[in-house]
Amino acid sequence: MxxxxxxxxxxxxxxxxxxxxxxxxxxxxxxTTVFEEELLGDWTSDPNEPGSWRFTRAEDEKKAYKLIIHDxxxxxGSFTARLxxxxxxxxxxxxxxxxxxxxxxPNQTDWAYNSIFMIPTHTFLKVDxxxxxxxxxxxxxxxxxxxxxxxxxxxxxxxxxxxxxxTSNTKQLQQFVLKYADDERLFPDEMILYPIxx
Length: 198
Hints:
It contains three helices and twelve strands, in the order H-E-E-E-E-E-E-E-E-E-H-E-E-H-E. The protein has helices at residues 3-11, 141-150, 170-179, and strands at 22-23, 33-34, 41-44, 52-57, 65-70, 76-86, 89-96, 123-129, 134-138, 157-160, 163-166, 189-195. A hairpin with a 5-residue loop joins strand 5 (65-70) and strand 6 (76-86).
């Protein structure tokens, strides 16, 4: 998956096409959340194109990151991210932390009142390495449907307007991602983030 498409998967949560897998419950618990300094800083998926992933320390949570994503078209996303360690594997749990329109000037977003009815959800990424580059594997809704067609009891979910939304509790989600961590139907797309040199 190219960098532009991968960023779109995280930012265009409510549009058609490539969409990340959504979950009502987090993948992390307090005892599975870790903080690695190596992740802090600015990263890019293509050194020759604009766009960045900026990881900083979250102000109000000790083991969380503030993640700001800019794509090549200056679309932005603001998230709280947690690094989750399950056995010897790492995952990122990403959760939107900003309302999608300006509350003081809702006219800046078409259909601003519709945003009130949109529930923030979690999405997960598998982390294959943190240094020297961050290697991530993104989820995608359509390949997950193929996995669930083969393994219908693998995880609890509902289908909402052709979207698969995971409804399992955190413990069940952890078991699910560990069992299928190497299955390309759960984590089909790799993205490599390179450090931005100042």
